[in-house]
Amino acid sequence: xxxxxxxxxxxxxxxxxxxxxxxxxxxxxxxxxxxxxxxxxxxxxxxxxxxxxxxxxxxxxxxxxxxxxxxxxxxxxxxxxxxxxxxxxxxxxxxx
Length: 96
Fold this sequence. Notes:
The chain has one domain. The chain is 29% helix and 10% strand. It is built from four helices and four strands, in the order H-E-H-E-E-H-E-H. The protein has helices at 2-10, 39-46, 75-80, 86-90, and strands at residues 21-22, 52-53, 57-59, 82-84. The two termini are 24 Å apart.
């Protein structure tokens, strides 16, 4: 994970990092599921100590992990399994 975070940070201007917000793709499982995998958010947080990482897109219904299945959801099916937490889009550091 650290290698991926360094690779991402390496293509970004260091002076821009405080003004960039990273929104990781939500995993296929809900936070309460035993197979919940937070690695995308973890990688985003490792990009820089000043990285603004927000998770406004939340999985609300488990789905098959793409890497484990031939089955692909249609866009409207995927959207039905996600929720946008609009408050996190505009939250300040103190509110998150």
